[in-house]
Amino acid sequence: MSPSLAEEIMQEQTHDTGQPPAPESGSRLEEIGQLRARLLPVLPDAETLWTRHTDGTFAFRGHLAMPPEQAYSRLREAFEELGYTPLMRRQQGYDVVIALRRVFKGTKTRWIWNVILFLLTLCTTTLMGALLEQGDRLIENPTLFFQQPLLLLSGIPASLTIMGILGIHELAHYFAARKHGLDTSLPYFIPVPFGFGTFGAIIRIRTPWEDRKALFDVGVAGPLAGFLVALPLFFIGLLISPAQLPIEGGVELGSPLLLRWLEQLVYVIRGLPQEQTIYVNAMTFAAWFGLIVTGFNLLPVGQLDGGHVAYAVLGKWAMLLGGIVLVGLGILGFLQWQGWFIWMAFIFLSGWQHPAPLNALAPLGKKRTIIGILVFLLMALLFVPAPFPI
What we know:
Layout: H1 5-14, H2 26-39, E1 47-48, E2 58-62, H3 68-80, E3 85-91, E4 94-100, H4 112-133, H5 135-140, H6 144-147, H7 156-179, E5 188-191, E6 198-202, H8 212-240, E7 243-244, H9 257-270, E8 277-278, H10 282-297, H11 305-314, H12 317-335, H13 339-350, H14 366-382
Antiparallel strand pairs: 1-2, 2-4, 3-4, 5-6, 7-8
Helix pairs in contact: 4-7, 7-8, 7-10, 8-10, 8-11, 10-14, 11-12, 11-14, 12-13
């Protein structure tokens, strides 16, 4: 369903070529009559928008007789009996109701692949965690794991850290989606034999967002849940990681403002002199990575979680903000860190323009708007232009 359909319908209504609309067939007139009968209690002054669309899509305009959320709930139930799903938009001072010939139903969930991918990712993250933990010893002895296989278990803390952050993140999305009646899958973990052993995890939401509240709740749930897991793990890791004078050739990671504050707090708690450097273990490194990715994921653009939040708060203005973010990432890619080009590619492939929910008239509400502003503040505190050295 194109989000511009309502606009096209309104253009056809207001920019007539002088030709009368094509006569409707008896069956189409009957369908329109049935839809209008169910629509009038909600949109009492409903006018039919005569369009040239022949795909079974009908549109009506008027003024709602009740709040948008209540109106949509009644229309969804009434239209479903006829095999339609309502879309609600506002155009040129009118409330527009579009009857889309489709009913979104839930599908049976098969969890076997979720379990298989989870176990594979647990193995790859444990392996990569062990490689990180035993890095210096492996450089000296590349056959170390063949000689001492139990050393692979040293990767378990890092594996549980990254799996915990990802798992809690996606499960928060899952439960928020189910709360709003969305048909969604369990998390799919993505194993890879390099890096941290995973490309993350995803859930599949098979039904469209009903309104901005659902979009906001699902979008914000994952990053906040993952953040609440990653931050204390990173703090604990800083408390137990060794500190010493800088080692020649060591790699200094980029830290966003929030993590720098946390590091300074740890220096005070441990009584460390500023000339020393904390060398984090694999678990702490995994927690740091989880926080960095959380900051990236909160960028207000496209299908990122921050993009969902931005659209819920700003509506169509989120597209302008998303464009500014993409330009900024391109500049940072040239000046700071080339990894931003990978993120830009992901944003474009997943769609940088956000589709409207089914009910675009229902307001987000003051409480969620304030939380949204705080989420963008958190994004700013977690953002770092160059997490890794160029």
